[in-house]
Write a structure and sequence with these properties.
- The protein is an alpha/beta fold and 229 residues long.
- It contains nine helices and eight strands.
- The strands form two sheets. The protein has a six-stranded mixed beta sheet, with helices on both faces. The protein has a two-stranded antiparallel sheet with strand order 1-5.
- β7 and β8 form a beta hairpin.
- The radius of gyration is 17 Å and the shape is globular.
Length: 229
């Protein structure tokens, strides 16, 4: 099944998928336990996915992303051979490029994906920034910033588009101020903040074309952080 029409950006129409995110606003390992925290704008899905039998794989993934990775060999159901939708859309490219970092299932408990939005979406985020900002939940964002700075050692990955959004959010909503300060004015890619327990890496989005050399450099930094204990 392939989607050819241009989708209007918005909240995913599936109540069950929205409920999944309200109950568990992250993907992969529990972010309080993970070593590597990948921050994104939103979790984007095909609008038809909840009406297809493949949705069972999505449910398995959200129930336990670590076990899913360990049992299937891939970190996200978008990468399964039987994924039935257009691989050029619905968030697939992001996870395909992330997989080129070449972390295997043995690293499943090291990674967590957390978005600025705590609701799943359809369409292109950049096509309706006004709606994106309307959907932001200050409580969720405060929770996210506390994950970054208030707990265990973290290697936190953001990207240049996200950095601009974080700067605007900090000014408009008064949240994410510490994260905004950490990445403000830094060149891209660059390590924005490095302390005894937090490294914030401001890099390129996994949604866009990046070189294998860049991905190799990021993977080396992540491995070094993980190996440090």
């Amino acid at each position: 099944m392939t989607i050819h029409s241009k989708l209007e950006y918005g909240v995913h129409p599936s109540e069950s998928l929205v409920r999944l995110f309200s109950e568990k606003p992250y993907q992969g390992e529990d972010p309080s336990k993970a070593k590597i925290l990948i921050i994104g704008n939103d979790a984007n899905y095909s609008p038809e996915i909840s009406n297809h039998k493949f949705f069972e794989r999505i449910l398995d993934y959200h129930a336990d992303g670590v076990v899913f990775w360990q049992t299937t060999g891939v970190h996200h159901p978008f990468l399964l051979a039987d994924y039935p939708f257009d691989r050029r859309k619905g968030g697939v490219r992001y996870h395909l490029i992330f997989s080129k970092l070449k972390f295997g299932p043995e690293y499943a408990d090291k990674f967590s994906f957390v978005e600025l939005l705590n609701v799943p979406t359809i369409g292109n985020t950049g096509s309706n920034k006004e709606l994106f900002f309307q959907l932001l939940d200050p409580n969720h964002l405060s929770w996210l910033e506390n994950l970054v700075f208030g707990g265990e050692r973290k290697f936190v990955v953001v990207n240049q588009t996200l950095a601009r959004s974080i700067d605007m959010i900090s000014k408009k909503l008064g949240v994410l101020k510490k994260l905004s300060t950490a990445i403000s004015g830094k060149p891209v890619p660059a390590i924005a903040l490095e302390t005894s327990h937090v490294t914030v890496y401001n890099g390129y989005s996994f949604s866009h074309s990046v070189s294998n050399e860049y991905l190799g450099d990021v993977a080396k930094l992540m491995n070094a952080f993980i190996d440090h204990g």
